[in-house]
């Protein structure tokens, strides 16, 4: 029983990190069909933002709370710059955006290495996140609970924003039928840019959360980007709730296989499971209903 | 008719020129060390031929060719390690970290014949299974690219996590002999270079035959309008899987030759970063052309070696900028600038087709699937 609870909690905790990383990706991928490989580096930028903020604000608790909005803006601005300079030109070549943004990620990584050094840096976690919380005899680390809460809050905020705000309505309209949205007077270009800002902003927030997990290094983004993409693939594009289910599912399955075997075998098995899953549902858990072919 | 004859002669002439360059000029001009480096680039070029076929012609962005390169390389490295250890012996790195002897799945690789067959068959099997599983379910475009990339990530993690079986993150190195020949002998090293050059020429010939054949037309048709091909009664999944398998085998052979030439293979050669790194040469040379990927891959590998010697961190910036600028602004690669390569390619193209409309682009640029 104890093992079960611990493993499920580990899985949910891993899934919440995945969810934070994948939320923005699901949004930009669903909106524009653009695959942003630099998303991982936006996460890294968020993490280093938290590091820099902590150099200025000495109190760990305050710096964490300040970092969250600042990292959102940093990630968002990076995203908008990328969209405005490169991606804008290549909406009709989704596969090529993969490679272009890969180039961006290489440059950002090397830049970080040159500025902050290759070795990892540490961000001090605030005291109120140290130690575990005891519930019914089980100990849960507070920092992990904080990330879980942050991921759920980010999802709820995004879902509510998409559902109730005018911008959310415009985004949904553009995702469902770009041409019809355009002819109804929605500026899809402006919507795209705002979507990219928000999606990349979530990457920045994810980066701040990752500073609570361990030390951060310039390779931070690469280790999360593939898993985040798998979450989007399994969840299905166009729907944020697919990403939520997929992230927690992957987290729990991975932590369970890791427990019974080893971490490296778990990666391979999870990949095989995803391929098998796609045989049943090639378009992910939730698919966008359309009348276009396949 | 004249046109056909002409173009045959051009192709044959190009082939002879390439063979002379590789077999006569390069060995005469280059030192043994430089020749070894060129041999290494040729191995990358073999992977590039396959990528050109799968990505340029078939529209499948394979971001995980490092997996097949690595499969070939590791199988060859295991065979060399076992050969060095002698019959029944245990490779040195294994004896250091474990006392269990050689794992069972290593044993078959003592036989050179088994190793050579496995280098072709195992990647073909993996690519065939993955290709059928994805293409049959109409998973394509970005989804396929991400899956192939995830495969590369999983493969690298598997290699690192298994130090007793695969040498972990250091990989396998320190080979002494190749099929009974000493690898320290310069004559044998030159022979290895000739084998690599020959293999590359064969692959280019195979790719050229595939491109001008009916199958090649079908592959391009799948890239440009898969649904239409399906409605015409073909099975696009089979067409695409065949190209993917061919590319995998080419990558595997390139990897297998890479090992004795370079003397080391490690997870750094097979993960996500090197896998995607293989793409940029293909893109620069012109992904849809025959020779573009080969020349591009050699040029990028050469530039990589030269520049990282002088400015280590600069090379990453240049690589990143190449991805950004070439893919965004010159998707057809240098061949679309109207170089000699492009002209040759056009000749291959026109030979098979009725005169194209004048406005058609010289090098077709794939728009990428949705």
Automatic annotation (TrEMBL), chain A:
The lineage of its organism: Bacteria, Bacillati, Actinomycetota, Actinomycetes, Pseudonocardiales. One of its GO terms (molecular function) is transmembrane transporter activity. It comes from Pseudonocardia broussonetiae. It is found in: Cell membrane. Coiled coil: none annotated. It is a multi-pass membrane protein. Belongs to the binding-protein-dependent transport system permease family. LivHM subfamily. GO terms for cellular component: plasma membrane. The keyword Membrane applies. This is Urea ABC transporter permease subunit UrtB. The chain crosses the membrane at residues 12-30, 68-87, 145-164, 194-216, 228-253, 259-280. InterPro entries: ABC_transp_permease, ABC_UrtB_bac, BCAA_transport_permease. Keywords: Amino-acid transport, Cell membrane, Membrane, Transmembrane, Transmembrane helix, Transport. The keyword Zinc does not apply. GO terms for biological process: amino acid transport.
Automatic annotation (TrEMBL), chain B:
Residues 359-370 have a biased composition (Low complexity). Keywords: Cell membrane, Membrane, Transmembrane, Transmembrane helix. Its main location: membrane. It comes from the Bacteria. It is found in: Cell membrane. The chain crosses the membrane at residues 9-29, 35-55, 62-80, 113-135, 142-161, 167-184, 191-211, 242-265, 277-302, 322-344. InterPro entries: ABC_transp_permease, ABC_transptr_urea_perm_UrtC, LivM-like. It is a multi-pass membrane protein. Residues 351-370 are annotated as: Disordered. One of its GO terms (cellular component) is plasma membrane. One of its GO terms (molecular function) is branched-chain amino acid transmembrane transporter activity. The keyword Secreted does not apply. This is Urea ABC transporter permease subunit UrtC. It comes from Pseudonocardia broussonetiae.
């Amino acid at each position: 029983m104890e093992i079960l609870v611990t493993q499920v909690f580990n899985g949910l905790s891993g899934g919440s990190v995945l969810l934070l990383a994948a939320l923005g990706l699901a949004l930009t991928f669903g909106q524009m069909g653009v695959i942003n490989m630099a998303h991982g580096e936006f996460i890294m930028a968020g993490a280093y933002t938290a590091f820099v903020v902590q150099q200025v604000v000495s109190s760990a608790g305050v710096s964490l709370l300040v970092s969250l909005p600042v990292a959102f803006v940093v990630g968002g601005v990076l995203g908008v710059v990328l969209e405005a300079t490169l991606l804008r030109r290549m909406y009709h070549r989704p596969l090529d955006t993969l490679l272009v943004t890969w180039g961006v990620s290489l440059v950002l990584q090397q830049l970080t290495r040159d500025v902050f050094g290759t070795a990892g840096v540490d961000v001090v976690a605030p005291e109120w996140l140290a130690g575990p919380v005891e519930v019914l005899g089980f100990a849960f680390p507070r920092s992990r609970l904080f990330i879980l809460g942050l991921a759920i809050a980010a999802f709820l905020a995004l879902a509510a924003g998409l559902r109730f705000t005018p911008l959310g309505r415009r985004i949904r309209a553009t995702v469902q039928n770009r041409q019809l949205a355009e002819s109804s007077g929605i500026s899809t270009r402006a919507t795209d840019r705002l979507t990219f800002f928000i999606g990349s902003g979530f990457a920045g927030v994810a980066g701040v959360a990752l500073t609570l997990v361990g030390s951060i290094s310039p390779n931070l983004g690469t280790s999360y980007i593939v898993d985040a993409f798998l979450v989007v693939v399994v969840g299905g594009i166009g729907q944020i709730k697919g990403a939520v289910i997929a992230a927690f599912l992957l987290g729990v399955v991975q932590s369970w296989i890791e427990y019974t075997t080893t971490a490296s075998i778990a990666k391979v098995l999870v990949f095989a499971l995803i391929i098998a899953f796609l045989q049943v549902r090639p378009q992910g858990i939730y698919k966008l209903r359309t009348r276009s072919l396949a | 008719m004249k046109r056909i004859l002409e173009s045959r002669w051009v192709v044959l002439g190009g082939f002879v020129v390439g063979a002379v360059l590789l077999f006569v000029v390069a060995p005469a001009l280059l030192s043994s060390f430089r020749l070894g480096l060129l041999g290494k680039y040729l191995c990358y070029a073999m992977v590039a031929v396959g990528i050109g076929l799968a990505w340029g012609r078939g529209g499948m962005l394979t971001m995980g060719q490092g997996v097949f390169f690595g499969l070939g390389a590791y199988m060859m490295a295991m065979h060399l390690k076992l050969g060095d250890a002698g019959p029944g012996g245990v490779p040195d790195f294994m004896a250091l970290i474990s006392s269990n002897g050689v794992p069972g799945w290593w044993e078959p690789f003592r036989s050179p014949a088994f190793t050579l067959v496995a280098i072709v068959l195992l990647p073909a099997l993996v690519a065939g299974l993955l290709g059928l599983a994805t293409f049959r379910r109409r998973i394509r475009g970005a989804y396929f690219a991400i899956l192939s990339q995830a495969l590369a990530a999983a493969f690298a993690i598997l290699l690192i996590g298994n130090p007793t079986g695969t040498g972990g993150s250091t990989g396998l190195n320190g080979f002494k002999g190749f099929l009974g020949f000493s690898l320290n002998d310069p004559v044998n090293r030159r022979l290895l270079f000739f084998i690599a050059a020959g293999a590359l020429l064969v692959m280019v010939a195979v790719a050229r035959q595939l491109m001008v054949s009916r199958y090649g037309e079908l592959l391009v048709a799948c890239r440009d309008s898969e649904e239409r091909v399906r409605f015409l009664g073909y099975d696009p999944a089979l067409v695409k899987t065949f190209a993917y398998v061919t590319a995998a085998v080419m990558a595997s052979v390139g990897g297998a030759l890479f090992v004795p030439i370079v003397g080391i293979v490690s997870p750094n050669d097979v993960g996500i970063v090197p896998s995607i790194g293989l793409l940029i040469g293909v893109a620069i040379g012109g992904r849809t052309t025959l020779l573009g990927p080969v020349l591009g891959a050699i040029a990028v590998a050469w530039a990589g070696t030269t520049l990282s010697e002088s400015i280590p961190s600069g090379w990453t910036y240049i690589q990143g900028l190449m991805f950004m600028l070439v893919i965004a602004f010159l998707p057809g690669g240098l061949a679309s600038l109207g170089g000699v390569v492009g002209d040759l390619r056009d000749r291959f193209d026109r030979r098979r087709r009725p005169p194209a409309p004048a406005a058609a682009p010289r090098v077709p640029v794939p728009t990428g699937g949705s």
